[in-house]
Design goal:
Blueprint: H1 2-26, H2 56-67, H3 73-92, H4 99-128, H5 133-157
Length: 168
């Protein structure tokens, strides 16, 4: 039981680290000809696209989409960091907590998240529109395989069912 809990904690920590690495890779400078934002994790947060063979024309369109004007995520991350710091400062100040101010800061953070998600989805839609039906099917197959692997991982790391002794 303890081994499974440690394994689960390690996996969760590892996945969280990968998310940070993916974000850093997305904003990392590009190297070499034909490289696209996103590094080894994929094209601008589209990891399943790395398994798809793109034509030269599609590669050019994809590069244009990814280089197109998109929000300054570094500035937004800094703004979010400052908003979280303001919340921490409010919670560390003696006296009554200004809940209205905390709510306002939370709403600002939520707005940043919504803007990021909307920008990501618009990019995904534009990328979808340059792919063929076969390429989209290939992506779907990869997504299904990954989902199956995640399900297997959850089953392996789930706590054991309660024994009959636990009910007595």
């Amino acid at each position: 039981m303890m081994k499974k809990m440690i394994l689960a904690a390690t996996l969760v920590g590892g996945l969280a680290g990968l998310s940070g690495q993916a974000l850093a890779a997305h904003h990392a400078p590009q190297k070499g000809p034909g490289c696209f934002p996103g590094g080894p994790g994929g094209y601008g947060g589209m990891p399943f696209l790395t398994n798809v063979q793109l034509t030269t024309a599609q590669q050019k369109k994809l590069k244009a989409i990814l280089n197109d004007s998109h929000p300054d995520f570094h500035a937004d991350m800094e703004q979010e960091h400052q908003l979280h710091k303001q919340i921490q400062d409010l919670l560390a100040t003696p006296g009554k907590v200004d809940e209205a101010q905390i709510t306002s800061l939370q709403q600002q953070i939520a707005t940043l998240h919504q803007q990021h998600e909307a920008a990501h989805l618009q990019t995904a839609i534009r990328i979808h529109d340059i792919l063929t039906a076969d390429q989209l099917n290939q992506i779907r197959e990869t997504q299904d395989k990954v989902a199956s692997l995640h399900e297997q991982l959850r089953a392996l790391t789930a706590p054991p069912p309660p024994s009959d002794d636990d009910h007595k």
